[in-house]
Amino acid sequence: MPYQLLEQHIKKHVEFSGEELKTFCDHFHLKKVMKKQLLLRYGTVCQFEGFVTKGCFRLFTIDHEGNENVLYFAAKDWWVTDIDSFTNQTPAFLSIQALEDSEVLLVNKSDKELLYERMPKVEKLFRIMTQKTLVSLQRRLIRNHSLTAEERYQHFISTYPEIAQKLTNLQIAAYLGITHEFVSKIRKKISKGQ
C-alpha cells in the first residue's frame, strides 16, 4: 500500500512505465516513526528525502529564546526533508518530528543521484515538485506579510482541514507566527459564530 501511494503521486506529475515505477520505488525504503519520535534532529546531516504514506510530521526550528517555529507540516502524500542539509550534506537547521504514529518512504542521496543518471524522467519529476514547493513557500510569505493573523488562521484551516484537526493550538501558532493564546481566541470567536 505505501508504495502504491508513491506510484499514484508520481503519476500525477510524470508518466512512468510500469518498469520505471518499479525501479523508482525500489530505491525507497519504508520507515515507521512513532508519535513524538524525531525523524531528523537539528545539527545532524539529513540523509533522506521522504514521502509520507501515513500520519503527519512537523518541520521546525527552536530559536535562542526557546520558541518553536514551524516551517511546515507534512501529512500523507507530502514530501519531507531538510532540503538544505540533504542537498549540501551540512548540519540540519530543522528537526522533523512525527505528530502521530507515521510511515514514510525514504530515499538517500546516492540512490537519488543514481535515479537521476538512469532515468531522466526522475529529474523532471523532482523539478516539478521543487517548483510547486517554491510556489507554496512564496505564497505563504506573501500571506504572512499581507494578511492579518486571523486571516492566516482561516486560510490554514480551510486549506488544510485534515492537518489542522490533528494539531494543538501551540503547533498552529508556531506555524502562523502568533501566540497560542491568540489562536485560542480566534477559535472561540469562530465557534461563537462571530
TrEMBL record:
Signal peptide: none annotated. InterPro entries: cNMP-bd_dom, cNMP-bd_dom_sf, RmlC-like_jellyroll. It holds the Pfam family cNMP_binding. It comes from the Bacteria. Gene3D superfamilies: Jelly Rolls (2.60.120.10). Coiled coil: none annotated. SUPFAM superfamilies: cAMP-binding domain-like. Residues 31-111 form the Cyclic nucleotide-binding domain. This is Crp/Fnr family transcriptional regulator. It comes from Fulvivirga kasyanovii.
